[in-house]
Amino acid sequence: MESHIRRFLEHLEIEKGYSPGTVEAYATHLYRFAQWLKENFPEIDHPEKINLEHIHQFRLYLSRLVSPEGKHLKKVTQAYYIISIRTFLRYLMVNCQMDVLSPDRIDLPKIGQRVVNFLSLDQVELLLQAPDTTNPKGLRDRAILELLFSTGLRVSELVSLNRDQVSLERKEFGVVGKGGKARVVFLSDSAANWLSRYLQTRTDNLKPLFIAVPGKGKKSKDGRLTARSVELIVDRYARQVNLPFNVTPHTLRHSFATDLMIAGADIRAVQEMLGHSSIRTTQVYTHVTDRQLREIYRAFHGRSKPRENRK
């Protein structure tokens, strides 16, 4: 079982061009499934022996799984496990010509509508102004926050940037996102300004666009900030200005997309700027803007208010 999983993961990495994070997620799901099979059905030593009852029992296991903190596995996380198994079986069926359980016979768990947290423009402004820009570290952090909101970059895309990739004159540059999908992103005047000010403080010849302060933060051999370091930077400033929910780099990506949609941007254009392969992924933001329009309607349309509140 493990050898087939390993070859499948290599297929995702080499043939599909999936990011290391995505491959790691598939590995987590499939190796856990394999371990569960070994513990509960030791006779299942080959993928062709997996049947619907095994999938059903594994889903029961996931739904009843409780963390040390007493929390159940989220429905969406349970769904990711099943998606990983289905994708693995489809690979074995198509690429390896194996007589495995048809993935189409495995139903996905029903999950509620995805909730997207995003910041209002006032909240974004609070966050952007939080770093102390009188020192190089604060300038770096301000440039990071500005770049995340200006471009909608994923944190993995941000930390992989090199200095020679970004054109401050054209205020645009290319990135390669999930699945090797290339796209162009654009810098706002503000983001270009803060990035320029940060780079002027750099006296090193290191390639990465963002590097760790000497002696602080997790970094790679070339000084490059890690994704985890950027997550901690965003979280620290969000807490500093008392934002009402947990804020991550992806929250700024959501805020970027939502701001465009509310302003009337075409959903196909937003899809391209986010680097989404499917329009269905981008459609989550239409629910956000629908709620925004509903609130505007209720606030301003006369017949939507109680009679005593009308003027």
Describe this entry's structure for a reader.
- The structure is a single chain.
- The protein is mainly α.
- The chain has two domains: 2-105, DNA polymerase, domain 1 (Orthogonal Bundle); 121-297, hpI Integrase, Chain A.
- It is 53% helix and 3% strand.
- A hairpin with a 5-residue loop joins strand 1 (172-176) and strand 2 (182-186).
- It is globular and about 65 Å long.
- The termini are far apart.
What is the CATH homologous superfamily assignment of the largest domain?
Intergrase catalytic core
Name the beta content range.
under 5%
CATH class of the largest domain: Mainly Alpha
Q: What best-fitting shape do the alpha-carbon axes yield?
A: globular
Query: How helix-rich are the residues, as a percent range?
Result: 40-55%
Quaternary class: single chain
What is the H-and-E element order? HHHHHHHEEHHHHHH
Q: What order do the strands of the largest sheet run in, or round the barrel if closed?
A: 1-2
Number of domains: 2
Termini separation (Å)? Answer: 71 Å
Beta strand count: 2
| Main sheet attributes: strand count, strand direction, barrel closure | 2 strands, antiparallel
CATH topology of the largest domain: hpI Integrase, Chain A
What are the segments in which pLDDT stays under 50 over at least 5 consecutive residues? Answer: none
Q: Write the CATH architecture name of the largest domain.
A: Orthogonal Bundle
Nearest-integer average pLDDT: 87
- Pairing-aware structural class of the strands and helices? mainly alpha
Rg estimate, integer Å: 23 Å
What is the tally of helical segments? 13
